[in-house]
Design a protein that fits this description.
alpha/beta; Spore Coat Polysaccharide Biosynthesis Protein SpsA, Chain A; seven-stranded mixed β-sheet
């Protein structure tokens, strides 16, 4: 949290706000909060004297979808018309001071969804290969591509116009995508034909993850941290099932770039003044 509040601001002095979405009710590993913790009250008050103001909100507990969907819901018509930048982050990751600027600069330069880490879908004979065979290390991951899927831990930068309006249907998100919010958000950029690019060409490059006590979690080689629900689900093939449900439920025509397969022809393998806001 503190690393987000200490970000270097954009040189053009555009306003930046940080929104933290909490819930009273528990959900999976999130035990919920009965009230706003004192340290967050202090951070919120202190941020009023800084360049990035912290806003805390209590919302329905939809798990990882809280990083983006409530943020979009806060935007009034005037702000929506400015096509704001929407940046997702985790509250248990330590970010470098230039994190925000790098995302904004890349979004402006590439005009596509930008994340630090992710994978690219592999297409074999018109079918999407299983998740574990997607590309994780390749220099081309830093270039815009319709099949690149950013993952959220290290941060993703969207423009509001890059997300299909139906992304807000959180009930359908939980029904179809479950915990795989990255695939839900990717699906709703792909519906508009918006490509994605990564700032890191390898999934092995990542920012430090912290425990609840603020200590760094050491990376586990050939294993996974025991608290990582996302990795546990993926290991069991959950992402392949999610992708199949999303493709089956899609009623919108999807078109790929010239020389790229059309997303409508892909099937999963069986098995501002624009205001940046960080959620």
């Amino acid at each position: 949290m503190d690393s987000l509040l200490r970000q270097s601001l954009p040189p053009d002095a555009r306003p930046v706000s940080l929104h933290l979405f909490l819930s009273h009710d528990p959900y999976l590993l999130d035990l919920g909060f009965t009230a706003l913790p004192r340290f967050l009250q202090d951070r919120q008050r202190q941020s009023r004297q800084r360049g990035i103001q912290l806003h805390c909100h209590f919302v329905e507990n939809t798990g990882s979808y809280r990083k983006l969907l409530p943020l979009i819901g806060l935007l009034d018509d005037r702000t929506q018309a400015l096509d704001p930048y929407l940046i997702t982050a985790d509250d248990d990751t330590l970010y470098p001071r230039n994190w925000l600027r790098r995302l904004l600069n890349a979004q402006d330069r590439l005009n596509c969804v930008v994340g630090f880490r992710g994978r690219r879908m592999v297409v074999e004979e018109g079918r999407i290969a299983p998740y574990h065979r997607w590309i994780k290390h390749d220099p081309s991951l830093t270039e815009p591509h319709p099949l690149t899927v950013p993952t959220g831990k290290d941060g993703i930068c969207y423009r509001l116009s890059q997300l299909h309006r139906d992304v807000l249907n959180w009930r359908q998100a939980l029904q179809l995508a479950g915990h795989a919010d990255d695939l839900w958000f990717k699906h709703h950029t792909l519906l508009l034909g918006v490509p994605s690019a990564l700032l890191n060409a390898s999934l092995s490059l990542e920012f430090p993850e912290l425990t609840a006590a603020g200590r760094r979690i050491r990376p586990h080689r050939n294993s996974q941290a025991p608290h990582s629900l996302f990795l546990t689900i993926n290991k069991r093939g959950g992402n392949d099932a999610v992708l199949a449900r999303l493709m089956d439920a899609s009623i919108y025509p999807l078109s790929g770039e010239q020389g790229q397969p059309s997303a409508s022809s892909l099937k999963p393998a069986s098995a501002g003044s624009r205001r940046p806001a960080v959620g």
